[in-house]
Write a structure and sequence with these properties.
Elements (H helix, E strand, L loop, with lengths): L5 H7 L6 E8 L2 E7 L12 E8 L1 E6 L2 E6 L3 E4 L5 E4 L6 E7 L1
Antiparallel strand pairs: 1-2, 2-8, 3-6, 3-8, 4-5, 4-7
Length: 100
């Protein structure tokens, strides 16, 4: 069994500015905590990815379309597809689950 504490990653994030922290990795699953800076610098992922929006709101560009997102929503991005968050609030954060 592998364990980690969600609040540890949240406590390590600065109030402002970009922050990415690898939180958990086991087998075919990797989990990161992500807080973008003023601009989301995400690039295409090699693997299918889930984004769990944990605070804030904004928009996501995913597979050629724009969608509003807010706290509590989950976004799925297929491997190799362009995606990024934009026009997001300063408190925007998300957990990223990479499915390898």
């Amino acid at each position: 069994m592998s364990r980690n504490n969600l609040f540890k990653a949240l406590g390590n994030a600065p109030e402002f500015g970009p922050h990415t922290e690898n939180f958990f990795e086991k087998g075919r699953v990797s989990v990161d905590f992500y807080k973008p800076g003023e601009v989301d610098e995400m690039k295409k992922n090699k693997h299918d990815t889930l984004f769990f929006v944990t605070s804030g709101d904004g928009y996501v560009f995913n597979n050629g379309k724009q969608h509003p997102v807010e706290k509590g929503e989950v976004v799925f991005v297929k491997a190799g597809k362009d995606h990024k968050f934009f026009n997001f609030s300063l408190d925007f954060t998300t957990w990223i689950v990479h499915l390898k």
